[in-house]
Design brief:
Layout: H1 2-22, H2 29-51, H3 55-114
Helix pairs in contact: 1-3, 2-3
């Protein structure tokens, strides 16, 4: 019975934390991954722990492990997004330079045709 009360307290604290975080800036992918991973880890830990009679301990162990794993996955996703953003920026720069060169080429053709 005591472990159920610990689990309920942990879930209430997690809910309060997520509500509080919802009032601030949008979450990064790292934070989202950590939050999802922590929740999944705590839930999985509670399920595994309940099979041996210690659901709260399982949740307390699984939560941080899931948090770290989720944050690492989120960090990798952020890194990929940043790389894609940099590639898109370079593509846009190349497109602008190509358009500038086309206009310059057209101007030179018109100029040489006039002479």
């Amino acid at each position: 019975m005591k472990s159920k009360s610990y689990l309920i307290i942990a879930l209430i604290l997690a809910l309060m934390l997520s509500i509080n975080m919802g009032c601030s800036e949008p979450l990064s992918k790292r934070e989202q991954g950590g939050l999802i991973g922590g929740g999944l880890g705590a839930g999985t830990g509670a399920i595994i722990g309940s099979t041996v009679g210690h659901a709260a301990v399982g949740a307390l162990i699984g939560g941080p492990i899931g948090l770290i794993g989720g944050a690492l996955i989120g960090d990798q996703l952020m890194s990929q997004d940043k790389k894609q953003d940099n590639q898109q920026l370079q593509i846009d720069r190349n497109r602008d330079e190509l358009e500038r060169l086309r206009r310059e080429n057209q101007r030179l053709r018109e100029q040489s045709g006039e002479r």
